């Protein structure tokens, strides 16, 4: 949520931010109008209450009982406008709050302007392109041949866009999750969180998933509960409606959760394999920091995600996202791994700084020092990393001519020493 004071005092600045995002700036004028109307109604109510209190005090000073009774009767005979004005103020407040929730975050001045994801900028590419003495196969062929991915049974259980991992396929994903968590905890200083996988509506409002992205959520019928689209949602809201005391920031959390997204997918697009699905696993990093450090913290967050890519020795690239592809962030970067079997760059991480946008929605504040006035924190999050696209990258980059898949060295201790996934190992 944007600061109403900023909108009130610098509406042109806010409008320009919306224009850069390709959003209609007219909403700013409506917000300014509603804010002015709300403040006027509140002022009228306060004035009437003050006049009523002054009249009551004056009556209390009248000595003559008959005169006092007459004045009381006159006061009671006057129509009371306060309830009606209170009702009007509440209605305007509701409209204003709804519009404030709909306004997107303002992009940082350094974010490139763009009309779509095609305007994102490749900052740099890291790692060497793997060479094969054969045509690399896509992961769905490898997975079926090695009997580590079962697409038919996934569809039988849950429908399209679902799959079953089997044997060493399931173990490889579990190894990835455990290794990534351990690395972020032991090397990057994060504290692990295991949150609920369903949350209340107000929690989704806090991170900006509602009301704008409600169509992408899986709701539980008959309950104020929704399956989480990412661990960012519950972890960011851990401190909602709280004031973090001096000396506690920065706070770094990391969490593994399944993620559920009812994304509207184009017919015929990415129908094969495990790239675009309704349920997937992800390790998520979340930061709560002081405002003056948040962009430095974004750099570190990206570094933390890159460490995973580097340790897996898979070619990847860093993209700065343009204004059209920011979501609710002020600045965002993506990491993409190259998968040779499908010949695609696959997004495995988004690292974003939200400024105080989420903190205002969830009312997460901190005290800079003892007895200081509370201020809003800045929140950040980044995938560290997202599955199953990392699985795709591993399978396709580490495949061999004989159809087997080498296990990246860093994962072998988590695989019980298994260094190759082959037909024989898959049946054990």
The secondary structure category is: alpha+beta
Radius of gyration: 28 Å
Order of strands, widest sheet: 1-11-12-13-16-10-9-4
Strand content: 15-25%
Largest sheet: 8 strands, mixed
Residue runs with pLDDT of under 50 for 5 or more positions? none
Coarse shape: elongated
> Mean pLDDT, rounded to whole units?
93
- State the separation between the terminal residues, measured CA to CA: 53 Å
The number of helical segments is 14
Number of strands: 18
> What is the share of helical residues?
25-40%
Oligomer: single chain
Features:
428 residues; alpha+beta; eight-stranded mixed β-sheet; 18 strands; 40% helix; elongated
Question: Any chance you could write out the topology, listing elements then pairs?
Answer:
Elements: H1 4-9, H2 11-20, H3 26-60, H4 65-77, H5 82-102, E1 121-126, H6 139-145, E2 149-150, H7 151-158, E3 164-165, H8 167-186, E4 191-193, E5 198-199, H9 201-207, E6 219-220, E7 225-227, H10 232-236, E8 242-244, E9 251-260, E10 279-289, H11 294-312, E11 316-320, E12 331-339, E13 344-353, H12 357-362, E14 364-366, E15 375-376, E16 378-386, H13 389-397, E17 405-406, E18 420-421, H14 423-426
Parallel strand pairs: 4-9, 8-14
Antiparallel strand pairs: 1-11, 2-3, 5-7, 6-7, 9-10, 10-16, 11-12, 12-13, 13-16, 14-15, 17-18
